[in-house]
């Protein structure tokens, strides 16, 4: 993956059913050969601010977990604090800190409260940037959308750290 240029696509929804429908459309578009998704999740944030991953397309779920490393990477890139709230391990923390610092330096600032406010849902996807426009347009029901370039190196380091800590993360999520 080192040669790919990646993009993070986020669609925000007031209606969680619309988010699920767009997620299914994304999967169908990929299956039909229209584009390739590196990873995608549907996140739902309840009125109290608690975030749940309600759907993910991770086919390589580590150790039979209900939530895979690929989904963790997508969440971590969109909102490092959301992953940090459930992740364990110094490696993940250090990488999330680096991503956060890099975003601040680049004025990247995906604001969780803007795109995943309490009581809303979001579809978050990582794609090769050549597919970014198609994937963003596929989020037909989204109330708002963003597309941002991401550092492939950050993606790969976060993916490795999550895979290395998969059992610990799954244990935390399931507890």
Describe this structure in words.
The chain has 8 helices and 5 strands; from the N terminus they run βαββααααβαβαα. Strands 3-2-4-1-5 form a 5-stranded antiparallel β-sheet. The chain is globular. The chain is of the alpha+beta class. The chain has helices at 16-31, 69-78, 80-86, 90-106, 112-115, 132-138, 152-164, 166-174, and strands at 6-13, 37-45, 51-56, 120-128, 144-150. The protein has one domain (6-167). The chain is 47% helix and 22% strand. The chain crosses the membrane at residues 77-97. This is DUF1269 domain-containing protein. It comes from Microbacterium alkaliflavum.
Large-scale geometry: globular
User: What does the radius of gyration come to?
Assistant: 15 Å
What is the number of independent domains? 1
Main beta-sheet annotation: 5 strands, antiparallel
Secondary-structure element pattern, one letter each: EHEEHHHHEHEHH
Q: Report strand %.
A: 15-25%
Gist of the model:
This is DUF1269 domain-containing protein. With 175 residues, this protein is an alpha+beta fold. It is built from eight helices and five strands.
Secondary structure layout plus pairing:
Blueprint lengths: L5 E8 L2 H16 L5 E9 L5 E6 L12 H10 L1 H7 L3 H17 L5 H4 L4 E9 L3 H7 L5 E7 L1 H13 L1 H9 L1
Antiparallel strand pairs: 1-4, 1-5, 2-3, 2-4
Which labels suit this protein?
single chain; alpha+beta; five-stranded antiparallel sheet; 5 strands; 47% helix; globular; transmembrane helix
């Amino acid at each position: 993956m080192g040669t790919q240029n990646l993009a993070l696509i986020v669609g925000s929804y007031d209606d969680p059913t619309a988010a699920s429908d767009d997620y299914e459309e994304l999967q169908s578009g990929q299956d039909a050969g229209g584009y390739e998704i590196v990873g995608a999740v549907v996140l739902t944030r309840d009125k109290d601010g608690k975030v749940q991953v309600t759907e993910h397309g991770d086919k390589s779920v580590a150790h039979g977990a209900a939530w895979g490393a690929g989904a963790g990477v997508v969440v971590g890139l969109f909102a490092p604090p959301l992953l940090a709230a459930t992740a364990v391990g110094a490696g993940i923390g250090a990488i999330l800190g680096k991503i956060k610092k890099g975003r601040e330096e680049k004025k990247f600032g995906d604001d969780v409260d803007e795109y995943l406010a309490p009581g809303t849902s979001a579809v978050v996807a990582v794609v090769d940037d050549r597919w970014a426009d198609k994937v963003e347009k596929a989020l037909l029901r989204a109330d708002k959308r963003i597309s941002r370039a991401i550092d492939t190196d950050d993606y790969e380091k976060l993916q490795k750290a999550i895979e290395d800590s998969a059992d610990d993360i799954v244990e935390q999520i399931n507890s």
